[in-house]
Amino acid sequence: MYEHTFVFAIDGSDYAYVLGLYLGDGSISSANMQLKVTLDARYAGIILACAEALERISPNRVSVRKQNIGECFQVYTGWQRWPLLLPQHGPGRKHTRPIVLTDWQWEIIRHHREQFIHGLIHSDGCRTINRFKTNLPGGRVAEYEYVRYFFSNMSADIRQLFCDVCAELGIRTTQSNHRNISVSHRDSVAILERFVGAKA
Q1: Superfamily, domain 5-96
Q2: Which of 34, 52, 58, 160 is a good FRET partner for 75, with 20 to 30 A between their CA atoms?
Q3: Separation CA 173–CA 196 (nearest Å)
């Protein structure tokens, strides 16, 4: 059962997506209970998707503003219930404290795994195309390219959440270094291509 009855009124798909965004690049201000998600200015489509999902969840106005430093936009909205909806909120940066999902959050995610991964990649992930050349026995030079996905986060707990939910979707992940998870296996990439694709 959900811990708070008002959660029943929230679309699970939107919630899973927003939870992924929050865990990647979101924060809640303790002073005014304002949820802020910081996103790369290059991806207007992601900024719009974030704003629209927040509008469907929050009863209050959702705003978008350009940050003074860096090429980023903040999507934000105030609501007293954000700490209840996002109980991972707390003092300090996420990688300095445990990040554990509640049972009711897992219940939602298991019905909306793709949207959760979508939110994590939209906030802290990327899609790249690796290109390389090789000399064939006949002397011809062949060119190849393949898609890879990366998820990068300083929090070991958040990286593990990404890996665990990917595994439930049949997606193979590899720890590239201390903060990066990669997805390069062809079948796994094909799954992400189906519901994530290029960031825009």
Answers
A1: Homing endonucleases (3.10.28.10)
A2: 160
A3: 16
